Amino acid sequence: MKPFDSKQLHWTRPPQQFSIADDKITITTQAHTDLWQKTYYHFANDNAPVLQMQTDEAYFSFTVKTDFSDSRTRFDQCGVVLYLDSENWLKGSVEYENEQFQHLGSVVTNRGYSDWATTEIDAAVKSMWYRLSRRESDYCIECSTDGEVFQQMRICHLEQGSGSIRFGVYACSPEVSSFTAVFTQMAISECKWLAHTGQQPD
After folding, report:
1. Is the predicted pLDDT of residue 62 greater than 90, yes or no?
2. Are the beta carbons of 31 and 173 closer than 8 angstroms?
3. How far is it, in rounded angstroms, from Cα 168 to Cα 46?
4. How far is CA 198 from CA 154, 168, 194, 195, in A?
5. Domains (ranges, CATH) in the chain?
6. What is the pTM of this model?
7. CB 3.0–4.6 Å: which of 46, 98, 105, 162 could bond 118 by disulfide?
8. For position 1, what pLDDT does the model report?
9. Helices and strands of the chain, counted as H and E runs
10. Residue 186 host element (H or E)
Protein backbone atom coordinates (compact mmCIF):
# COMPACT_ATOMS: atom_id res chain seq x y z
CA MET A 1 0.00 0.00 0.00
CA LYS A 2 1.08 3.57 -0.66
CA PRO A 3 1.66 5.81 2.40
CA PHE A 4 -0.85 8.52 3.21
CA ASP A 5 -0.27 11.48 0.90
CA SER A 6 -2.33 14.62 1.49
CA LYS A 7 -1.67 15.72 -2.09
CA GLN A 8 -4.02 12.97 -3.22
CA LEU A 9 -6.95 14.47 -1.29
CA HIS A 10 -9.76 16.25 -3.09
CA TRP A 11 -12.77 18.16 -1.80
CA THR A 12 -16.43 17.54 -2.33
CA ARG A 13 -17.92 20.86 -1.18
CA PRO A 14 -14.87 22.54 0.42
CA PRO A 15 -15.53 24.53 3.62
CA GLN A 16 -14.56 28.17 3.95
CA GLN A 17 -11.84 27.42 6.52
CA PHE A 18 -9.49 24.43 6.46
CA SER A 19 -5.83 23.37 6.48
CA ILE A 20 -4.26 20.26 4.97
CA ALA A 21 -0.90 18.61 5.67
CA ASP A 22 0.32 15.01 5.77
CA ASP A 23 0.30 15.01 9.58
CA LYS A 24 -2.72 17.23 10.34
CA ILE A 25 -5.99 18.30 8.75
CA THR A 26 -8.39 20.84 10.21
CA ILE A 27 -11.93 21.59 9.07
CA THR A 28 -13.98 24.45 10.52
CA THR A 29 -17.63 23.61 9.99
CA GLN A 30 -20.42 25.85 8.80
CA ALA A 31 -23.96 25.88 10.14
CA HIS A 32 -26.66 23.67 8.61
CA THR A 33 -24.26 21.19 7.02
CA ASP A 34 -25.00 17.47 7.19
CA LEU A 35 -25.13 14.08 5.48
CA TRP A 36 -28.43 12.16 5.68
CA GLN A 37 -30.89 10.60 3.26
CA LYS A 38 -34.64 10.27 3.86
CA THR A 39 -35.10 7.51 6.46
CA TYR A 40 -37.39 8.50 9.35
CA TYR A 41 -36.68 12.23 9.13
CA HIS A 42 -37.91 12.40 5.51
CA PHE A 43 -35.34 14.99 4.48
CA ALA A 44 -32.20 14.73 2.35
CA ASN A 45 -29.19 16.70 3.60
CA ASP A 46 -26.16 16.47 1.34
CA ASN A 47 -23.97 19.52 1.91
CA ALA A 48 -21.24 18.48 4.37
CA PRO A 49 -17.62 19.04 3.27
CA VAL A 50 -15.91 15.76 2.43
CA LEU A 51 -12.14 15.39 1.88
CA GLN A 52 -11.14 12.14 0.17
CA MET A 53 -8.67 10.26 -1.97
CA GLN A 54 -9.46 7.68 -4.62
CA THR A 55 -8.35 4.06 -4.84
CA ASP A 56 -9.18 0.84 -6.65
CA GLU A 57 -7.35 -1.23 -4.01
CA ALA A 58 -9.80 -3.97 -2.94
CA TYR A 59 -8.22 -4.70 0.46
CA PHE A 60 -6.90 -1.98 2.76
CA SER A 61 -7.43 -0.12 6.05
CA PHE A 62 -7.48 3.62 6.66
CA THR A 63 -6.87 4.88 10.20
CA VAL A 64 -7.35 8.42 11.52
CA LYS A 65 -7.53 10.13 14.90
CA THR A 66 -10.20 12.80 15.36
CA ASP A 67 -10.23 15.57 17.94
CA PHE A 68 -13.53 17.36 18.52
CA SER A 69 -12.74 19.27 21.72
CA ASP A 70 -14.33 22.33 20.13
CA SER A 71 -17.74 20.74 19.50
CA ARG A 72 -20.50 22.12 21.72
CA THR A 73 -23.80 22.14 19.82
CA ARG A 74 -26.19 19.25 19.20
CA PHE A 75 -25.20 17.07 16.22
CA ASP A 76 -21.72 18.65 15.76
CA GLN A 77 -19.72 15.75 14.29
CA CYS A 78 -16.53 14.67 12.55
CA GLY A 79 -15.12 11.36 11.50
CA VAL A 80 -14.24 8.91 8.77
CA VAL A 81 -16.21 8.77 5.52
CA LEU A 82 -16.53 6.86 2.27
CA TYR A 83 -18.62 9.07 -0.02
CA LEU A 84 -19.40 7.85 -3.53
CA ASP A 85 -22.30 10.16 -4.32
CA SER A 86 -25.28 11.69 -2.53
CA GLU A 87 -27.15 8.37 -2.34
CA ASN A 88 -24.30 5.94 -1.60
CA TRP A 89 -21.90 6.47 1.30
CA LEU A 90 -20.97 5.55 4.86
CA LYS A 91 -19.58 7.47 7.82
CA GLY A 92 -18.44 6.90 11.39
CA SER A 93 -18.34 9.69 13.97
CA VAL A 94 -19.17 11.04 17.40
CA GLU A 95 -22.14 13.43 17.43
CA TYR A 96 -22.39 15.90 20.28
CA GLU A 97 -25.70 15.77 22.16
CA ASN A 98 -25.38 17.64 25.46
CA GLU A 99 -23.07 18.13 28.44
CA GLN A 100 -23.79 14.61 29.71
CA PHE A 101 -23.53 12.33 26.66
CA GLN A 102 -22.91 12.11 22.95
CA HIS A 103 -23.53 9.52 20.24
CA LEU A 104 -20.80 7.27 18.87
CA GLY A 105 -22.21 5.78 15.72
CA SER A 106 -22.18 5.00 12.04
CA VAL A 107 -24.45 5.65 9.08
CA VAL A 108 -24.69 3.52 5.95
CA THR A 109 -26.59 4.86 2.95
CA ASN A 110 -27.51 2.60 0.05
CA ARG A 111 -29.51 3.90 -2.93
CA GLY A 112 -30.72 7.00 -1.12
CA TYR A 113 -31.76 5.60 2.27
CA SER A 114 -29.69 6.03 5.45
CA ASP A 115 -29.59 4.08 8.68
CA TRP A 116 -27.98 5.13 11.95
CA ALA A 117 -26.52 2.73 14.52
CA THR A 118 -25.43 4.42 17.76
CA THR A 119 -24.40 4.01 21.35
CA GLU A 120 -24.19 6.69 24.02
CA ILE A 121 -20.77 7.64 25.36
CA ASP A 122 -19.71 10.16 27.99
CA ALA A 123 -19.52 13.77 26.84
CA ALA A 124 -16.05 13.97 28.41
CA VAL A 125 -14.66 11.99 25.47
CA LYS A 126 -13.09 14.53 23.11
CA SER A 127 -11.11 12.37 20.70
CA MET A 128 -11.66 9.09 18.87
CA TRP A 129 -9.70 6.92 16.45
CA TYR A 130 -11.42 5.25 13.52
CA ARG A 131 -10.31 2.44 11.24
CA LEU A 132 -12.15 1.91 7.97
CA SER A 133 -11.35 -1.40 6.29
CA ARG A 134 -12.33 -2.67 2.87
CA ARG A 135 -12.72 -6.21 1.59
CA GLU A 136 -14.02 -5.69 -1.97
CA SER A 137 -17.53 -4.21 -1.56
CA ASP A 138 -17.80 -5.09 2.15
CA TYR A 139 -16.62 -2.65 4.81
CA CYS A 140 -15.84 -2.55 8.52
CA ILE A 141 -15.73 0.53 10.76
CA GLU A 142 -13.90 0.26 14.07
CA CYS A 143 -13.18 2.79 16.82
CA SER A 144 -10.58 3.20 19.54
CA THR A 145 -9.88 5.61 22.38
CA ASP A 146 -6.13 4.93 22.38
CA GLY A 147 -5.24 4.00 18.79
CA GLU A 148 -4.18 0.52 19.92
CA VAL A 149 -7.26 -1.49 20.82
CA PHE A 150 -10.05 -1.17 18.23
CA GLN A 151 -13.65 -2.24 18.69
CA GLN A 152 -16.04 -3.10 15.89
CA MET A 153 -18.79 -0.56 15.23
CA ARG A 154 -20.22 -1.86 11.98
CA ILE A 155 -19.84 -4.43 9.20
CA CYS A 156 -21.76 -3.44 6.08
CA HIS A 157 -22.12 -3.83 2.35
CA LEU A 158 -22.22 -0.92 -0.07
CA GLU A 159 -24.24 -1.77 -3.15
CA GLN A 160 -22.16 0.63 -5.23
CA GLY A 161 -18.96 -0.01 -3.27
CA SER A 162 -16.99 -2.17 -5.69
CA GLY A 163 -14.26 -1.01 -8.05
CA SER A 164 -12.86 2.48 -7.60
CA ILE A 165 -13.97 4.27 -4.42
CA ARG A 166 -13.18 7.44 -2.48
CA PHE A 167 -12.53 7.63 1.27
CA GLY A 168 -11.32 10.15 3.83
CA VAL A 169 -12.68 12.52 6.48
CA TYR A 170 -15.58 14.90 7.01
CA ALA A 171 -16.99 17.34 9.56
CA CYS A 172 -20.31 19.16 9.77
CA SER A 173 -22.71 21.09 12.01
CA PRO A 174 -26.38 20.36 11.22
CA GLU A 175 -27.69 23.10 13.54
CA VAL A 176 -26.63 26.73 14.07
CA SER A 177 -23.04 26.01 15.01
CA SER A 178 -19.42 26.01 13.95
CA PHE A 179 -16.45 24.13 15.40
CA THR A 180 -12.97 23.10 14.31
CA ALA A 181 -12.37 19.39 13.83
CA VAL A 182 -8.77 18.16 13.92
CA PHE A 183 -7.56 15.01 12.15
CA THR A 184 -4.14 13.46 12.80
CA GLN A 185 -2.34 10.10 12.62
CA MET A 186 -3.71 9.35 9.15
CA ALA A 187 -2.39 6.03 7.82
CA ILE A 188 -3.14 3.57 5.04
CA SER A 189 -2.12 -0.05 5.55
CA GLU A 190 -2.82 -3.60 4.53
CA CYS A 191 -6.31 -4.68 5.50
CA LYS A 192 -6.52 -5.11 9.28
CA TRP A 193 -9.96 -6.71 8.92
CA LEU A 194 -8.94 -10.32 8.50
CA ALA A 195 -10.69 -12.83 6.28
CA HIS A 196 -13.50 -14.76 7.95
CA THR A 197 -12.44 -18.17 9.25
CA GLY A 198 -15.65 -19.39 10.89
CA GLN A 199 -18.78 -20.82 9.32
CA GLN A 200 -18.33 -21.42 5.61
CA PRO A 201 -20.78 -20.14 2.97
CA ASP A 202 -23.55 -22.46 1.80
Report:
1. yes
2. yes
3. 16
4. 18, 31, 12, 9
5. 6-189 (2.60.120.200)
6. 0.96
7. 105
8. 67
9. 0, 16
10. strand 180-189
